[in-house]
Amino acid sequence: MKIKNYLDKVIAYVFLVAWVLIVFFPLWTMIVNSFKTQHEIFTDPFSLPKVFTLEGYKNALEMGNFGVFFLNSLFITVVSLSLILLFGSLAAYALVRWKCRLSNALYFFFIIGMMIPIRLGTMSVVKIIISLGLNNKTYGLIPIYVASGIPVSILVLTAFIRSLPKGLIDAASIDGASEITIFWKIILPLIRPALSTVAIFNMIPIWNDFWWPLILLRQESVRTVPLGVSLLFGEFSANWTNILSVLTLASIPMIILYLLMSKQFIRGLTAGAMKG
């Protein structure tokens, strides 16, 4: 029995290591080659750079106006995630505490939003954004991303809040705590793993979105990273050092977020299974 368990662990670790290598290899290749000259990229793409150069990063920041694109995407992503987490957690808590058929109907109404891609309503969304005067403005994308992120946040957070011990909330209510106090001081600290899960799930599509910036952002000063990178590809089409440097810079926020929240993210994903 011990030998079988040992073999199972070995097989599991072999698959995990193989998966890590498969995922990490493209990232490693991109980062390493961003510090090489173009000649070295074509002659030896998988080794460490023999001639270390920061020319690609310098060109991306100075010639490509990448810094402006990066700050625009960072602003949109941070504000959108903050509003998604705030509204999603408030709505999830209300749906859990509100015991009636209408609350269940509202819950399923939000969940249906995950089944209908928002791009199907592109024309209607564009008309609304233009009528509000939000087109060609970075903050004009925020309502769209918040609306897209609320359904998945409610799905994850509602399930997580329902798994919390009911006695905690009841005890706080008996002690005279208001619903706002219970939410801020008891619920929010306990649902941090779920909030991290929601943040990671929503950050990737928001940061990488190309569709809405392409339609709504025309001026170069308000463009985001994906839209700006597509233009830099045309500008730097003959220089792979510049292209890989831009892609490396564009991937930094997602890598940092996952490294900071990976433990909470895993806890959020496994919380329901552990409860079961």
TrEMBL record:
GO terms for cellular component: plasma membrane. The keyword Transport applies. The keyword Nucleotidyltransferase does not apply. Residues 70-261 form the ABC transmembrane type-1 domain. Gene3D superfamilies: MetI-like (1.10.3720.10). Its main location: membrane. PROSITE patterns: ABC_TM1 (PS50928). It is a multi-pass membrane protein. Pfam families: BPD_transp_1. Keywords: Cell membrane, Membrane, Transmembrane, Transmembrane helix, Transport. GO terms for biological process: transmembrane transport. It is found in: Cell membrane. InterPro entries: MetI-like, MetI-like_sf. PANTHER family: ABC TRANSPORTER PERMEASE PROTEIN MG189-RELATED, ABC TRANSPORTER PERMEASE PROTEIN MG189-RELATED-RELATED. Belongs to the binding-protein-dependent transport system permease family. This is Carbohydrate ABC transporter membrane protein 2, CUT1 family. It comes from Longilinea arvoryzae. The lineage of its organism: Bacteria, Bacillati, Chloroflexota, Anaerolineae, Anaerolineales.
